[in-house]
Amino acid sequence: MTSYFTGGVLGSAGATLAFARFGIVGSYLFGVAITVFGLLVWALGRSREKLMIQELN
Predict the structure, then answer these.
(1) CA gap 9, 36 in Å, rounded
(2) What residue spans define the domains of the chain?
């Protein structure tokens, strides 16, 4: 639960800074970038889990 809180705080701060520096376009691009990063981390985690399961079988 703490990781969700920390992620929310950091995400909000990042979006605020992007908006202050680059306007709405910067805020939008920050959202896209953080979403893509999150999906990559998730996909790598799934691949790692699949490899571990295959090793057990």
Answers:
(1) 18
(2) 1-57
